[in-house]
Amino acid sequence: MIPLHENLAGKTAVITGGSGVLCSAMARELARHGMKVAILNRTAEKGQAVVKQIMAAGGTACSVSADVLDRRSLVQAKEDILGRFGSVELLINGAGGNHPDAITDVETYVEAGEGQSFFDMDEGGFSTVFSTNFTGAFLASQVFGKELLKADSPAIINLSSMSAYSPMTKVPAYSAAKASINNFTMWMAVHFAETGLRVNAIAPGFFLTKQNHDLLINRDGTLTGRSNKIIAGTPMKRFGKPEDLLGTLLWLADESYSGFVTGVTVPVDGGFMAYSGV
């Protein structure tokens, strides 16, 4: 178990998409270190399940309904959180995901077979995926940013992806959005550097989540062909586990550990990005 980061105790963390597989693990861990955790989801009930887990372990948390693409919704969520916890010191932009309308059924256009090609993708689906993964982080950073600037050691942590560095086949909208996250992380880091607000990102390698489950696991529980490619390209020869992200999360969140770190995206990928395939 990771030793407690006492510097985080009493501070408030806001996590968009906080009920997801990865972000819920982050929420539980931050609460274990004494942070008050506000989980934002479009459906408050999903976040409430995580809140119950945190409270059962002795932590402090709340679930707030908010749509990261609706500024008014985010402003109302901010007011609710400030009313409960009084301040915001950490924002984790974790809301994201994919949509069938923004996925091709084949990896390359010349492959034989039926299904959705590049030319069949729906503009609405593409825009929704891009917006949820990128614009949502922009809006949440705007809405909560002014509160963060009031804190002594504020931080924003964005959730990126391996697809930001080299786009995965089949998921162009998601890949483009995550590449934008990396760039935006650097831009914000420079823009706010003199204020004390640090902005960094974590780029998970391949983790099994609700969003990618059907792409990676067959109905019979075996690995898909895509999964086999991933494992072959990951030197550690496994998928990541949510707990694999927590050390990096705490390092970036705790100014006493990373006070001179801003504008970086940290891969947590089992060596995937370092491996040439040879």
Helix-strand layout with pairing:
Blueprint (H helix, E strand, L loop, with lengths): L11 E5 L4 H12 L3 E6 L2 H13 L3 E6 L5 H15 L4 E4 L29 H26 L6 E5 L12 H21 L5 E7 L8 H4 L8 H8 L13 H8 L1 H4 L6 E4 L10
Parallel strand pairs: 1-2, 1-4, 2-3, 4-5, 5-6, 6-7
Helix pairs in contact: 1-2, 3-4, 4-5
CATH architecture: 3-Layer(aba) Sandwich
Query: What's the SSE pattern?
Result: EHEHEHEHEHEHHHHE
Structural class by sheet pairing and helices: alpha/beta
What is the distance, rounded to the nearest whole angstrom, between the alpha carbons of the first and last residues? 35 Å
**Cα-atom radius of gyration:** 19 Å
User: What is the CATH topology?
Assistant: Rossmann fold
What's the average pLDDT? Answer: 95
User: How is the biggest beta sheet arranged?
Assistant: 7 strands, parallel
Number of strands: 7
Query: How would you write the strand order of the largest sheet?
Result: 3-2-1-4-5-6-7
| C-alpha geometry | globular
Total number of helical segments?
Answer: 9
- Beta-strand content: 5-15%
What ranges have pLDDT less than 50 throughout 5 or more consecutive residues?
A: none
Keywords: Oxidoreductase
GO molecular function, one term: glucose 1-dehydrogenase [NAD(P)+] activity
Pfam families: adh_short
Protein name: D-mannonate oxidoreductase
